[in-house]
Amino acid sequence: MPTLTLQPAEAAALDTYLESGANANTNFGGAAILNIGNNAFGGIINNILLEFDVSALPASATIVSATLTLKQSAGAAAGGVNMECRRLDELGWVENLATYNRYDGLANWPGGAGGAGDTTGGAFATVWHPPGAGSTVDIDVLVIIRDAFANRAGRALLHHRQTSPAGIGTTYSFHSSSAVNAADRPKLAIAYTVPELPTASSDDYTPACAHVTAGGFRRSRFNWRRHC
């Protein structure tokens, strides 16, 4: 089964995190990490934004699976919190301008600070637990990627946030697309199928007539031609 793997470096990637509090108007688009969680001591909220372009998939592709892999760079190994990944609906967000308060550096998030109100939830939610620094977290984003391929010109926008426990927890850091080690960067792996092309068989052909002259057969051979 063919697989499209996307793991772009900073120059071709779109990822950042949003932080409330004193940094609510600060952009982290060039940071080497992506923070997520609710800091129990300072009441700071961190959400992650990621975008992938899946338009390289064949037009006839049927997406079978889609897995987002993040590699943790810091955070507690035990006592993980519940987090979710949703589809981000604000198509105008700008990686190097987005902040907790504004999606493009100028306009406020329509659904409220942090971008959580500008997401589609329910069926798009995936719950997971950070396992500790150096580990990877695989997130099933099949529904989001199918929707991006079919309805959003290949733009897959992902919003990650902590959902529980509310108001407490810690901050977990994942490597961003700016990571020096390419293997540490966010990765999206999409497995898909394409329709098989029909193959010709001998039953699809019939011999043509031999060459004939007024005086009879000049030579005999078989030419192959497709049935009409």
Description:
This protein has 228 residues and is mainly beta. The chain has one domain (3-193): Jelly Rolls (Sandwich), CATH 2.60.120. Helices cover 4% and strands 37% of the residues. The chain is built from one helix and 15 strands. It is globular and about 70 Å long. Residues 209-214 and 216-228 have low confidence and may be disordered.
Number of helices: 1
Number of strands: 15
Share of helix among residues? under 10%
Order of helices and strands: EEEEEEEEHEEEEEEE
**Uncertain parts:** 209-214, 216-228
Main CATH class: Mainly Beta
Q: Would you tell me the structural class of the helices and strands?
A: mainly beta
The CATH architecture comes to Sandwich
CATH fold annotation: Jelly Rolls
Shape field: globular
User: Rg from C-alpha positions?
Assistant: 26 Å
The fraction of residues assigned to DSSP E strands is: 35-45%
Distance between the termini: 35 Å
What does the average pLDDT come to? 83
Topology:
Blueprint lengths: L2 E4 L7 E6 L13 E6 L6 E9 L8 E13 L7 E7 L30 E2 L15 E5 L1 H10 L3 E10 L6 E5 L11 E7 L11 E3 L4 E2 L2 E2 L6 E3 L2
Antiparallel strand pairs: 1-11, 2-4, 3-4, 3-10, 4-9, 5-8, 5-10, 5-11, 6-7, 6-9, 12-15, 13-14
